[in-house]
């Protein structure tokens, strides 16, 4: 590009069915910090998303330890559908969280009823993350979250 350029990163966004339930997961279970909540119903938001019939968007910003911010959005006043898909399907995504004591965390989260795509903790034996461990789990709406314990 000749005049514009990317100069930084602001946040990631995840759309959820129920913001309250999502915050219980991201804040209470995973320990993210709740930064703020808001109801977006100003004209500019409708201009950005271009969704006819949208009443408002309930929004929360949460911070992952280390500083990354995630915007969690609940669209209100329209029919919504699950975007849950297989991790190999284009248009999907995931976030990867660096964790400590992955095996213990995996067992504790399973005991709390958290759904995992991975049956066990995988030991990474090749590539850039060789020596690390990882699993895929799902948030309450089916969004994929990877938990990774980096090699020492």
Q: How many DSSP E strands? A: 8
Biggest β-sheet, characterized?
Answer: 4 strands, mixed
Mean pLDDT: 93
Quaternary structure classification: single chain
Overall tally of domains = 2
Helical segment count: 3
Tell me the helix content. 10-25%
Write the layout of secondary structure elements.
Elements lengths: L11 E4 L3 H11 L3 E8 L2 H7 L6 E8 L5 E8 L17 E5 L3 H10 L10 E2 L9 E6 L5 E6 L3
Parallel strand pairs: 1-4, 5-8
Antiparallel strand pairs: 2-3, 3-4, 6-7, 7-8
Task: Describe this entry's structure for a reader.
The chain is of the alpha/beta class. The protein folds into two domains: 12-76, Roll (2,3-Dihydroxybiphenyl 1,2-Dioxygenase, domain 1), CATH 3.10.180.10; 94-149, 2,3-Dihydroxybiphenyl 1,2-Dioxygenase, domain 1, CATH 3.10.180. The protein is 18% helix and 31% strand. The chain has three helices and eight strands, in the order E-H-E-H-E-E-E-H-E-E-E. It has helices at 19-29, 43-49, 102-111, and strands spanning 12-15, 33-40, 56-63, 69-76, 94-98, 122-123, 133-138, 144-149. The protein starts with 11 loop residues before the first strand and ends with a strand.
């Amino acid at each position: 590009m000749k005049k514009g350029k990317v100069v930084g990163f602001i946040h990631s966004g995840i759309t959820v069915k129920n913001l309250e339930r999502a915050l219980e997961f991201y804040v209470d279970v995973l320990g993210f910090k709740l930064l703020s909540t808001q109801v977006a119903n100003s004209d500019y938001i409708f201009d950005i998303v271009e969704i006819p019939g949208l009443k408002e968007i309930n929004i929360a910003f949460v911070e992952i330890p280390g500083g990354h911010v995630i915007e969690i959005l609940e669209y209100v006043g329209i029919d919504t559908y699950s975007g849950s898909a297989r991790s190999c399907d284009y248009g999907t995504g995931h976030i990867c969280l660096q964790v400590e004591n992955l095996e213990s965390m995996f067992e504790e989260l399973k005991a709390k009823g958290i759904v995992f795509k991975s049956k066990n903790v995988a030991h990474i034996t090749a590539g850039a993350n060789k020596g690390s461990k990882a699993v895929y789990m799902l948030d309450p709406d089916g969004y994929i979250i990877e938990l990774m314990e980096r090699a020492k």
